[in-house]
Amino acid sequence: MTATLSTHVLDTAKGMPASGIAVRLETLDGVQLAGGHTDHDGRLRDWAPPLTPGVYRLVFDTHAYLGDTGFYPEVVVTFRIADGTHHHVPLLISPFGYSTYRGS
């Protein structure tokens, strides 16, 4: 049983997608499985290998996007895959905050 993964980043301060953000997919022990940059729509699609059940993390380089005005230079989202469905993990950012959720 394997799952697919996608993500996107929205800049809530600007009200638009955040393009060009570097994102890494890692195992819990830090082994990098995939990497890429968000596109013009703030999305990464078809970039990650099929994932088996387990715990993973997405590492977003927000400093390169927000610069020194951003309070969080990096955002790490740790999540669990328990089944073979599609998993969508969005990130909403602003210079002084972020949030995430399991999307569809």
UniProtKB/TrEMBL annotation:
Q: InterPro entries attached here?
A: Hydroxyisourate_hydrolase (IPR014306), Thyroxine_BS (IPR023418), Transthyretin/HIU_hydrolase_d (IPR023416), Transthyretin/HIU_hydrolase_sf (IPR036817)
Q: How does it assemble?
A: Homotetramer.
Q: What is its EC number?
A: 3.5.2.17
Keyword Iron belongs to the record: no
Under which name does UniProt file this protein?
5-hydroxyisourate hydrolase
Q: Name one GO molecular function term.
A: hydroxyisourate hydrolase activity
Q: Which CDD domains match?
A: TLP_HIUase (cd05822)
Q: Could you list this entry's UniProt keywords, alphabetically sorted.
A: Hydrolase, Purine metabolism
Q: Which PANTHER family match?
A: 5-HYDROXYISOURATE HYDROLASE, URICASE AND TRANSTHYRETIN-RELATED
The task this protein performs is described as: Catalyzes the hydrolysis of 5-hydroxyisourate (HIU) to 2-oxo-4-hydroxy-4-carboxy-5-ureidoimidazoline (OHCU).
Might you name a Gene Ontology BP term for this protein? Answer: purine nucleobase metabolic process
Chain ranges of the Transthyretin/hydroxyisourate hydrolase domain: 5-103
Instruction: Write down a Pfam family by its short name.
Output: Transthyretin
Q: Which reaction does it catalyse?
A: 5-hydroxyisourate + H2O = 5-hydroxy-2-oxo-4-ureido-2,5-dihydro-1H-imidazole-5-carboxylate + H(+)
Q: Name the enzyme's class.
A: hydrolase
* Entry similarity comment: Belongs to the transthyretin family. 5-hydroxyisourate hydrolase subfamily.
Does Transmembrane appear among the keywords?
A: no
